[in-house]
Design brief:
Elements (H helix, E strand, L loop, with lengths): L1 E8 L2 E8 L7 E5 L3 E5 L4 E9 L8 E8 L2 E2 L10 E4 L7 E11 L2 E12 L5 E4 L16 E4 L14 H7 L12
Parallel strand pairs: 4-10
Antiparallel strand pairs: 1-2, 3-5, 5-8, 6-7, 6-9, 9-10, 11-12
């Protein structure tokens, strides 16, 4: 792009052109969960948050894709909305990768989440989606849905950094329930 600039020199106006470029800040998409563990046929929702720096006000296009163990799957009733609602859940156990692709004009952004579907006999604790970006001092309510847990067990909230979670992976028992 060029801009015309005029300046005066000895009572004459002289046009000149200056090149300039408008940089794109991009399109960003975030999902409400990076990883989710659910039981077979348990409903869940994945919400998307889109930051549209350059084309605010223009309509966004959403596309959702799914794969299970590397193979494409067709599980969506309506996959063109900003939030993915699976009211019937997923039909088989396994590890699903869900991808949201958002576009506006010639810009694209995508985000992925992993959904691990367990047999219904195993306990499942699912934290409902919460906003990923909040202002300092803002109150956030965390809601969890719990199913298939033994009656003598109690649940306890705790917060851990990503590093703490990675180091604890080897200590997780996948086929038993530990109660306090």
């Amino acid at each position: 792009m060029f801009s015309k600039v005029y300046y005066k020199h000895h009572n004459r106006t002289i046009p000149t052109e200056l090149p300039f470029e408008v940089g794109y800040r991009g399109l960003e998409v975030y999902l409400s969960a990076d990883k989710l563990i659910v039981g077979i046929d348990h409903s869940f929702t994945i919400e998307s948050t889109v930051i549209n720096h350059d084309y605010a006000g223009l309509p966004l296009t959403f596309e959702w894709r799914c794969s299970i163990n590397g193979t494409a799957c067709d599980i969506f009733d309506d996959a063109n909305e900003s939030n993915l609602i699976l009211s019937s859940g997923l039909p088989t156990s396994g590890q699903y990768e869900i991808t949201a692709i958002v576009s506006v004009l010639h810009q694209f952004a995508e985000a992925k989440t992993t959904i691990i579907v367990l047999d219904s006999i195993l306990p499942v604790i699912q934290v409902e989606p919460t906003p990923r970006l909040v202002n300092e001092g803002t109150s956030v309510t965390l809601v969890a849905n719990v199913s298939n847990i033994m009656p003598i067990c109690t649940l306890q909230w705790y917060f851990a950094t990503e590093e703490q979670l990675k180091s604890a992976v080897n200590d997780i028992c996948k086929e038993c329930q530990v109660c306090q």
